[in-house]
Fold:
Amino acid sequence: RWEWDSLRLRAARMKFDQVLADHATAARIYGWPMPANFRTDPRLRLCTDDLALRVRLPNVTLRRSAQITAARWLDLPVLAPADVFISIAPDLTIRDLVKVGDAAVGRWHGPPQLTVDTLTDRVGQRKRLRARRRLRDAIDLIRPGVDSPTETDLRLWIVSVGLPEPTVHPK
Structure:
């Protein structure tokens, strides 16, 4: 799936050089653990800060916003990790957001892509934000150093049944 997304993104950039991967496409490129509906979403999700740009292609969605922060991941132009996390928040449960957050601040697929402080600051900077409470609740549960989605699920289950939160990788 990653190869298909990267190929389609590179092709879109040949025609529209100011677009970045956004939403589910960017999350897949970052290698984040996504629920099934995100993993199988056939749309190429793009974003740009060019408010006049129009892209009319099948299975391509373009979001235009002045609040776009560009990044590069594996030599692909993507929306910055914190902004991707914010953009997918309305479509995910808190549990799924915590899994994504643990992956982004951890070393699942290489170096951490962001920090909890960066994420907290980015959410605080936004005046209008869908799912602000869900984002804050998820950020409070994100822990650096978690090694897998299964570990996140276990930690969240332990807390949900009233047990104290386990320490991530105690010495």
